[in-house]
Amino acid sequence: MNTLEFIPKPFSNLLEKANFTWQTPSNIALIKYWGKSNLQLPKNASISFTLNNCHTITTIYFTKNRGVEGANFNLFFEGKKKEDFKPKIAQFFTRIQQYCPYILWYDMEIHSKNSFPHSSGIASSASGFSAISMCLMSLEQELQTIKLSKEYINKKASFIARLGSGSASRSIEGGLVVWGNHLEIEGSSDLFGVQFPYKVHSIFKDYQDTILLVDKEEKQVSSTVGHNLMMNHPFAIQRFAQANENLSKLSKILQNGDVKSFINLVESEALTLHGMMLTSNPYFILMKPNTLEIINKIWRYRQENNSNICFTLDAGANVHILHPKKEKEKVNQFINNDLAQFCQKKQYICDSVGFGAKKVVSIKE
Ligand code: PMV
Fold first, then answer.
1. CA-27 nearest atom, ligand 1
2. Domains of the chain
3. Is the pTM value of this prediction over 0.90?
């Protein structure tokens, strides 16, 4: 595994101060990553749709210091100092230090906000770590005399984001992103996410994702605990092999536009993820009664209306409804009339496939 390409050349342009702002998206996995080895290497390949409306906007203010032992930073979330997020970010900075030595030369003030409600049960670690990673890459570019290619910046940003949260590696590029080495996906790697390298059928280019907020509490099981439960899981080996096979199948489906097979595979992946949690020890039920109500209603609606909607789930109770854009109006009506009642405060978020990380501001002195 070659990580040497992420160790930067010596730096020459030391700025006194700089700040960069990036907006980076959340993503929703179609083939799920669940189970990892050290350091943040996935046990199987995964693929996700990059989202558009669910994103994080982060500004990092860098001020040159006299060189410190560990990264010196303060964190503000939605304008308020956030001490409880600090340990995870401190661990991230320790992990990336050899690839981003400049984090020791600057004091960092990190200001972050999400487009989605904080307590919505939507994991913000993917968009959160990808946004920090893009800000760091902007600083790296300023400190270098050579121009870094967009390809390198995205690859390294994904590589370091992965060290914060695995799924964050899939939150830099737009469209469909694969993370994890897979024999049939050219360029795929355990180290970083890459855009799905083959032609994507037009139906999947503007796919819609409506997120039904069934449970807005903090996750019942953190993903760190969840991944660890796969270590001695009786079905782990079969699951990792199945996920890789499912990615081979999905790769073909994404190219040929076979929506019926897409539905079958994506729903099966979601239920398998939950099946892994049901059959681990300790065991967890991550769905709520309303999750099941919604799933049953989706199945009935699909059958009665010859529709192409389907669901997927994260490691929680919220339901993502995926569907082709041409069904948008009807599906919105269905959600409003029949599903919103199962959401907390009737809340849901309409989203669709997005374009990836966006630079918002760049100021340097
Ligand atoms: O990136 P993590 O460690 O929070 O893990 C994410 C795991 C799932 O969201 C359940 C699946 C995935 O591939 O995104």
1. 14
2. 17-365 (3.30.230.10)
3. yes
